[in-house]
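User: I would dearly like some help making sense of a protein record. I have put the entry right below:
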Amino acid sequence: MHKNYYLFKRQVDFIKPQVIGGTINRMFTFQKNEVVMEFSRSGRMFFLFLNIHPSLPHIILKDAFHIRKPEFQVFECLKGQTLQNMDMRPFDKWLQMHTEQYVIDTVFFGRHPNVFVHDEQNNLIDTFKSGQPALPEYGSAEQPLKDISADTLADLFKQQPAEKLITILQNTLAGINKLLARELLFRAGLTAQHIADQLSRAEINRLHRAIQNLYGALHSGPVFIYKNKDAVKRIALVDLKHLSNTEEDDWTVETFDSVNKAWDYYIRQVRAGQTRCQLENECRTALAKKHDYLQRSLQRLQEAENLQKRKADAELKGNLLLTFQQEVDPNASKVTLDNIFIDPPQPIEIKLNPSKSAVENANQYFNKFKNIDELKHTQNLRKKTLQQDLQDIEALQQTLASANDVKALQKLQQDLVQRGLIQQSGKQTETDISALKHQFHRYFLQNNWELYVGKNASNNELLTFCFAKKQDIWLHSQGVPGSHAIIRVADRNINPPAAVIEEAGRIVAAYSRAKHSETVPVQYTRVRYVQRMRKAATGVVKVQHEQVIFVKPLAL
């Protein structure tokens, strides 16, 4: 009902005595589809909000207040003008306001709602939206409710005997929308399925009385806000008795003595609901996408866990390439050879590196699973990290399911932004230090020791000097460029086991320029002994009290 003519009419009748005689100080906008008129009257400042949003048009009067958002001035010609009159055009959502020199038309309906300013000779001066340079045509052929008699109804039904009553009421009675038509039928003991020629005279009389009663309620009395499962769904000038007769039994109602208060409350609640729905969808989509990715990654990892079989397959391909090396075309990206090691032989497709010879490709297959224990260790490390990430995402999905207000959803959204799951939009908020962990590579070592590894020079700085705690263990490949890393330590009196430091060192070596070396020296110390160097490049540090271990880089 928020788009119903009678709601606009009752609101304008409420606002009119408060604005007539007021002086327009300025007209401005600070959000899409809304013009705000600031005016003063009897020493008080007011805002009149004229919102022409296609799905949520409204008129609201408020005391003036400070607006934080940028304001853009419109309709400069109206500055200093005095409001002399305002009213809704009969049975249309079209507000017309008059000043000494100008007419302000706010059209809330149609494909292109707009605000127009023209003079008394109907010469267009300015428009709020530039896409519609002229006023639409005005006219209404509908029957006013107060002029409808029982005989008039009977004649209308005779003219359209095969039409449904609800359609006739909507198309014929001025200002009656589907919601009010349903209410009229319910009060008359009829349904939306009734056909015009099925009505008796007694039923027509009952419907006429319902129209008279509804007409009175539309012009005076309380305003009703209807909620379903605590979500605002309807605003109405009449008690919608038919709602309690629906299959949905969660309807509750609040009443207001002012249409201005009720409408303001309705708009705020609807916008909050829209914001909540948008946040829920955004968070749900981001979490589902990450959850699916982690599940697929784990699935691929599990499928690759049978390393013995994969090693045998690789060695078979290597042997076939050596056996049939003369049949392998140079620069080929794949070849199909008969597997002569089974009876009967069957063809097998083998992928090739076009830049290498058949013998070099064969050696590549032989070396692929040369160190199978190392590969198993790397897979287990990746698997543990993916499983922990999956648990984190599932915990966030539970948080989303239990989020009961917009503030909780906004907090979750910010968490997902910091994790890189949602793109940051608008003004950036200050990042929580604990949330920085999502910006680094993360590994879970023996007994769940956490290792964080930087991604580049600036990320190294962030890791070492913002995220790391003084008691954490800092690691870096000695003498070569590479990533900073830290082992998270809960207490300064606790030292990670030597095996954990060695495993962390192997990962750090893998993130250095020496990752292909047989042995790499890795230095480690407490974070408190790591300092920036003046005038040095980003990520270059000075280290004290360090120890050095020699490790073989892990094949990540």
Observations:
- The radius of gyration is 37 Å.
- The chain has a mean pLDDT of 90.
- The chain is about 35% helix and 20% strand.
- The CA atoms of residues 50 and 453 lie 54 Å apart.
